[in-house]
Design goal:
single chain; mainly alpha; 67% helix; disordered N terminus
Length: 393
């Protein structure tokens, strides 16, 4: 049973010839050098989803309308965990490209894996946002602003690159058809929306005038980029479900990825409305505040519809024997964006119903995170997720 979203690829050493397979060397041919750090060969870009899922626990928890004693401290601890996980994963992925370049290139040419490069952008952006939301309590405001500026810049650049490069590869290099359409295809397109939702945190720290307005409008541009691209793709995803039936059991959790652009876009318009008075004059600031509610409420309604559908499909897959896979992390970050979206609507409408919705969704997020994190740690400890021995061949 597969344990990651990365599809297995043929190891080149398996086709080295019959003499190699028999354990004998060809004349005048040096013995093959075993690859260093064999476990890194199985480390695909989908692992960044674990960082995203951890960081959103911090960001959503710190912005909930309801706060209990110790909640902010717990969010700070989770932020430290997400930042450490990001550092470790960036190092490990660098080792993947250094020691297993053939596999890394194969990932880019695999339509089932390439979309996960959008997760790198979202991991950088989510941890950066957490640095300003709660990290400044630990490292101070100047260091937090500087760290988020670096992570936001890097994450936005990677996200925009992925939003262009991955669809380009899907058109000119990948061999795909409409029957393969799935929620995973949304990942590189959602990354700019995460930039749109996290960029407003930096607006108050920029000089008044051109700098603030430029960042505000750049975030709206990325909001539009991601939203329109998502609207083009979502009908294909839903059409695939209607005509092709349910997804394979291990891919069922990826249905929750559709919540990502819905919840994140609602979060973005509310976050942007919060800082619009600092960057845009009248009448635009008021109009952007109204847009946050006019756009956010209907989209949140559709998000709840999709959440119910995806939850029903998840229950069906669980009853059919669905085991653990790294796809379980799809149950975290997308749900977290709905938490922040609902919290934003609670701020701008004053409705207690949205506050309660944010709290209920956050409880679901915590449960999903505990399950995904626990199974991931167990899989790492047993070597099931990242085998420590090179494949035989």
């Amino acid at each position: 049973m597969a344990t990651t979203l990365v599809r297995p690829h043929e190891d080149p050493s398996r086709s080295a010839g019959t003499a190699h397979e028999a354990g004998t060397a060809l004349p005048n041919t040096p013995a093959p050098v075993p690859a260093r750090f064999p476990a890194l060969r199985h480390l695909g870009p989908n692992w960044y989803a674990s960082v995203m899922g951890t960081a959103i626990v911090t960001n959503a928890g710190a912005t909930l309308p309801y706060q209990v004693p110790g909640q902010r401290t717990a969010c700070q601890l989770v932020w430290v965990l997400s930042a450490a996980a990001l550092a470790v994963l960036l190092t490990a992925r660098a080792g993947h490209w250094l020691y297993h370049r053939d596999q890394a290139r194969a990932h880019l040419l695999d339509p089932a894996v390439a979309p996960f490069y959008g997760c790198l952008s979202m991991a950088l952006l989510a941890v950066g946002a957490g640095t300003l939301v709660v990290g400044e309590d630990l490292i101070g405001e100047p260091a937090a602003v500087a760290a988020d500026a670096v992570l936001f810049t890097a994450g936005t650049a990677v996200g925009l690159l992925a939003a262009v490069a991955v669809p380009y590869l899907m058109v000119v290099r990948h061999e795909i058809d409409a029957a393969q359409a799935g929620p995973v295809w949304l990942l590189p397109l959602v990354a700019p929306m995460v930039s749109a939702a996290t960029g407003p945190l930096l607006v108050p720290h920029l000089p008044a005038g051109q700098a603030r307005e430029a960042l505000l409008l750049a975030c709206y541009a990325m909001f539009g980029l991601s939203l329109l691209a998502t609207l083009l793709l979502l009908p294909m995803v839903f059409g695939r479900l209607l005509t092709g039936g349910a997804l394979p059991l291990l891919l069922t959790p990826t249905l929750f990825l559709v919540l990502g652009p819905l919840g994140q876009s609602t979060t973005a318009v509310n976050q942007l409305a919060d800082v619009a008075p600092l960057a845009a004059g009248a009448p635009y600031a008021g109009a952007l505040g109204a847009f946050a509610v006019v756009y956010g409420v209907p989209v949140m309604g559709f998000a709840l519809l999709w959440l119910a559908l995806a939850a029903a499909m998840l229950v069906r897959a669980a009853r059919a024997g669905m085991g653990f896979a790294m796809t379980w992390w799809a149950l975290t970050f997308p749900v977290g964006t709905c938490v922040t979206g609902a919290a934003g609507l609670a701020r701008h409408t004053g409705l207690t119903a949205f506050a309660w919705l944010a709290a209920a969704l956050y409880a679901a997020l915590l449960a999903a995170w505990l399950l995904a994190a626990g199974h991931t740690l167990r899989g790492l400890a047993t070597g099931r997720l990242l085998p420590r021995r090179p494949a035989a061949g």
